[in-house]
Every structure is written in C-alpha cells, then in structure tokens.
C-alpha cells in the first residue's frame, strides 16, 4: 500500500487553479492558432486574434482570462492500493480551492443553496467525481467550468431506434440552439449510453481530453470527425459572428446501456476550455 | 463602420447604428446582472429610489473578478444577456438606452428595442483580461452584499463592441 496525504492533493489542486485561470492550456492555444489559419474573414479573425491577445495579457499581468473563473470540477482516479491520510479528501480539496480563489483574486461564483442563492464566499464546494482504478497512483483532472457554456448543455433520452443519426441530430440541434451564447468556438463533449446521470458524467469527462488527441475508440474517432464537419457547416463562427470556426473539437465517450434506451448528453465548453491534470 | 459613442446616449446617437457595426463606447456605464436586476425591479415595484438614474444610461451585464491592489478592476467581460430578457423592459420604459452583453436575446427584446429606442451591444465573451484595460475607474454604488453582482459605476474609454440589436429592432443573429 502507498500512503498519500490528502493535503498534497489540496496543494496540487491549488497549483492547477493558480495556473489554469491565467493561461490557456497548450492544446487550446494550438487549436485557436490553427482555427485562425483557416479563417479568412475580418470579424472571425479579429475575434480569434483577441482570444490569443487576451491569453498573453492574462499570463503576463496575472489577470484571470475570464471574469467567470468557474465552478471547480475534479475527476479523481484513485489507485486501489492507496491509503489516503489526513483530513477528509474533500475538506483538503476545498481548502485548495478556497486558497486559490482568495490569493488569485478569482471570482467567487458559487451559491450555497440554488434556491436561496447566498454566495459561499470562497468558491467552494467544488464538484468531485471519484473512481477507483488499479495501481498505486492518483490521477487528478481539473476544469474550471464557466456557466455561459454550462447553461447551453442538454440531455436527451433517445430511443434505441433513433440510432447514430438520431444522436448526431441531437448534438447538432444542441449546438444550433446554443448559437452565440456559450462563447464559440466551443468544445462539444458528448456522452452516449449508460443511464441518465452516467451520460451526463461521460459528456463532462469527454471535455477533459486534450484537443487534437485521438479518441482511443476508432469508431467514435470517425464520428467525431464527421460531426465536427457538420458543426462547422452550421456557420455560427467565433462569438456567433459567422465564420468557419464554430467548434474547436467534438469529444465523444460511450458506455454500455439498457436495451430500452439511448441516453445522450451534450456538455458544451467555451473556447478557453481551462483544464489540466496531474499524477500523484 | 466604426461609431464613436459617448454616454449618456440620446436617441439621435443611435439612429446610424446597424447590426454588426463596430462601436467604441466611452463614458460612464453601470453594471448589473441577474441578482441586481431582481433588486432593481423590486425597487421599481415598491416605488423606491434606484441606485442610478436610468434615463440615457447603459447597463453592462458583467460581474468582475476581484480587483487586486493597484489595479482598476479585475477581468471584466460580458455575461450572457438572455437571462436578463424578462427583466429588461421596465428599465427600457424608464429610459435605458443601451445594454451590453453577449449572446442572443429574445424576439420580445428586439421588439422592445424598437418601441423604446434602445440598442443591445455585444462584447466578446472570454476576453475579460483585455477588457480590464478599457476601464479607467470602477466603484461599487449599490448592493455591495452581492459581491461580484453588486452594481458598479464604471468609466470606460473606447470599449470595443458590436451592434447586436439596433433601435429598429433588427437582430444581428436573425
């Protein structure tokens, strides 16, 4: 068995948050640069250029990339040979969040009760998803999720007979309905299968994958390419102002499901897709 | 086409604007988003004093990140405008001449822009660090307990925007 202090996880989370809010991940920067190379009209070009300028300024002057510094979502894959020591893991992680959002002058966007809506004042609690995996390592994947894009996400309980065509139509419809709202060019996370909540979780997890990386499932990789082209032909463009770049990526994850169902969740992320990960 | 506009806005200032035109806005603007709108509407219903006179003014749908020592403001880009759609008309009736946000608004809002001679201006989402450079002063003037959602009085210089809905009710996204 390997012992890991939960305080170390809190510290690693703090470090990620202090970076990811001020600096676009490398894969996102590259994807925006490539998109810029394909756009030939002035308005979409100018918007993509400003995304890169914003990134340069944010990194240099330590100003958050966006005022919506999000709700912190953490995926923890914990090796089953690990023993966690110290404070309860969520206490340690929330401490890391609170410290980063205070010291980094990051916006506190979390309300304690969704109906009463009083701000918690330190951007906690985060959203934590755990899974047990073989081995003695911990993989922590983190995103700070803004709600302009989160609000444009959808879940559909399709019929088995709807098939691939039905899923594709649902994804395209979701992107079209979202239009300019989620800050395109977006990243589209699609979760197919499982149960209602599993599909939603898969769609969020799909957003954690680096842009430009191949889907390990070859059949899904083919669909991603095809749907990407279909999304491009919607012509929404950067901030909905028209152009070729509506999405920077479509990422699909799937899971076994029931004979009677075809759940589909579409989780949309904004152009900045602030995500990162660490192995402990 | 680039228009230089200075607040407060008069109806005459709006006539030349067309959807998609660029605007460089200067002067005083006020921030308000979901929670502040709810409070302003309650004040209107109860006949209370509003935090600022709406006539000729511009509201920016924005809640900034905290201001570090020595800075004027933190990141300060737009939030999505449609969430304020159901709370906008009473403000237009009191003379609000412009709103700034991102995204698509309802048909009802486009219609109201025409009726009350007002415009919806679009800022680019997710470049809040860049926008902090056009704000020359910032002060909380109401609802301080709302934190990022408090009403702020900002002075901006050449804030770059696009016309989303013009005063004839024409919508860039339609």
Describe the protein's architecture and organization.
The complex is a heterodimer of chains A (280) and B (174). Chain A has 280 residues and is α/β, with parallel strands linked by helices. Chain A has 2 domains: 101 residues, Dihydrodipicolinate Reductase, domain 2 (2-Layer Sandwich); 133 residues, no CATH class. Chain A is built from 8 helices and 10 strands. The radius of gyration of chain A is 19 Å and the shape is globular. In chain A, 45% of the residues are buried. The mean pLDDT of chain A is 97. Chain B is of the alpha/beta class and 174 residues long. Chain B has a single domain, classed as fumarase. Chain B has 5 helices and 7 strands. The radius of gyration of chain B is 15 Å and the shape is globular. Chain B starts with a strand and ends in a 9-residue tail after the last strand. Chains A and B meet through helix 3 of A and helix 5 of B.
Question: What's the short version?
Answer:
The complex is a heterodimer of chains A (280) and B (174). Chain A is an alpha/beta fold.
List the helices and strands and how they pair.
The complex is a heterodimer of chains A (280) and B (174).
Chain A: E1 2-5, H1 6-20, H2 26-38, H3 42-61, E2 71-79, E3 82-85, H4 89-103, E4 127-133, E5 138-145, H5 147-150, E6 154-158, H6 163-178, E7 186-194, H7 196-206, H8 218-232, E8 247-257, E9 262-269, E10 275-279
Chain B: E1 2-6, H1 11-14, E2 22-31, H2 34-46, E3 58-60, H3 89-93, E4 98-101, H4 107-116, E5 119-122, H5 128-131, E6 135-142, E7 151-165
Parallel strand pairs in B: 1-2, 2-3, 3-4, 4-5
Antiparallel strand pairs in B: 2-7, 5-7, 6-7
